[in-house]
Amino acid sequence: MSLLQFFIAVDVTVVNVALPSIGAEFGVGGHTLTWVVVGYTVTGGGMLMLGGRLGDLLGRRQVLLLGTSLFGAASLLAGLAPSYSLLVVARLAQGAGEAIALPAAMATIVLLFPEGPRRSRALGVWAAVASCGLVLGFVLSGVITDRLGWRWIFLVSVPFILVVLVASVVLVRRDRPAAGDAAPLDVPGALLLTACPLLFAYGVVEAGEPGTPAWVVVAALAGAVAAAAGFVRVEGRAAHPLVPLRFFTHRTRVTANLTTMLLSGGLSTSFLLFTLYMQDRLGYGPLGAGLTMLPLAVALIGCSLLVPRLLGRWGARACVLAGLGFTGAAMAVIALVAATDTGGAALVPAMLLIAAGMGFGLVGLQYVAVSGVTEEDAGIASGVQRAADQLGGAAGVAVCVGIGFAPALHTRDPFLVATLLATTGLVAGAVLARGLRTRLPTETAAAPVGERVEADGRETTG
Asked: How far apart are CA 8 and CA 272, in angstroms?
């Protein structure tokens, strides 16, 4: 499960450093190239809850194999794409494969480990793998693009995905679908949930492009609002909703998911700002830009090993607030470095702070977001949490970078504008996070006897 998580996380960031090479081969400009990044993230985030529902209704093992197969096939298509349009289609398919596979994988892990220290350690490993995949995506992109060419950033994952498929068949037990598995899927809800962030990102990005008619921007943003309202309406009336509205009556989970969106927006913005500064301002090549991110990866591994231990001592709220604070401090360093042009080495403190922000914030939020889940709603909870993470990151990049680097604001430092917008979101996240109260149960209270997982039609202790 963690190997799958790693390569899916890598594909979120691996294209960033390779974008100039992709644009040069296909003759595509920077504005159009953004969809190689946004298309994958938004499609994956928008369909994640459908993936979670599929796992609950059809069985996690079956859905895991389906999503992993789609992700692997799409990776192969992206690496062999003869045109830019087909590359974008492949990225959309990768996002769909991720959305189907990841909730099933995460729900499997959640149900295997009882709530308490054992689950926190398992989720700590899961979050560490995801975070390292996001960061190492930059490093691998630089090395692979420089030595082998950009196509191999997609092709290199294919054999590992085959390993995941074989291992899943051997190691993951067949589970029994939930009662009522013949219920129809909420396809309209999934389409509206995906359309909303796509239209929002399109409207924000186009707003900063010279020559774009105002009505196009207004129509896109209005469409995003209409899709959001339509989603709530459909979910409220559907006999078998994608996400039952009662799920959002759990105050702690809602707070955790909203905070996740705001924190992920700041983290994703920082990644793109690192890349833009090193390649546009400092003139680094793919290899240099990728290797400069190594301190972040190393520090993140250390934080991810430490945080699960502190989570039991401090509680989720303290860890989340620390993560938000570290990320906000990183934004201040990025703004200062960009304003003074002090060079790439000066970004190392910001990278260390980002590692701490991810390690403390996302692990704590992930634990809270799945607290108290049952066999019936584990997939939904996992899907909502992942959707909040990815959609928050995509929205953060669209708003902070899209507005910060808009031609209309070129009289100001774009890095300053982007970091100010991201910091505003982090402050809002800190206000929300103050309401989190979840603490880990003690080891005694978290004994595995009480946890049960259905496997091959029988109930077995967790």
From this structure: 18
State in Å, rounded, how far the first CA of the chain is from the last one: 17
Q: For the chain, how long is the longest CA-to-CA vector?
A: 66
DSSP E strands: which ranges in 225-318? none
Q: Tell me if residue 432 falls in helix, strand or coil.
A: helix
Q: pTM value?
A: 0.77
Sign of CA dihedral 7, 12, 14, 15: positive
Check: CB of residue 160 under 8 Å from CB of residue 7. yes
Residue 158: count other Cβ atoms within 10 Å of its Cβ. Answer: 15
**pLDDT string in tens for the chain (462-residue length):** 888 989 888 887 788 778 778 888 998 765 567 778 778 888 888 887 777 778 877 888 889 999 999 999 999 999 999 999 999 999 989 999 988 998 888 878 877 787 777 887 887 788 778 777 877 787 888 888 888 899 999 999 999 999 999 999 998 888 776 555 456 678 888 889 888 988 888 888 777 677 778 899 899 999 999 999 999 999 888 877 877 887 777 788 888 899 999 999 999 888 888 877 887 788 888 888 788 888 887 887 788 778 877 777 787 788 899 999 999 999 999 988 888 877 777 888 999 999 899 888 888 888 888 777 666 666 677 778 878 888 888 888 888 887 887 766 666 788 888 899 999 999 999 999 887 765 554 433 333 333 333 333 333 333
Q: How far apart are CA 380 and CA 243, in angstroms?
A: 7
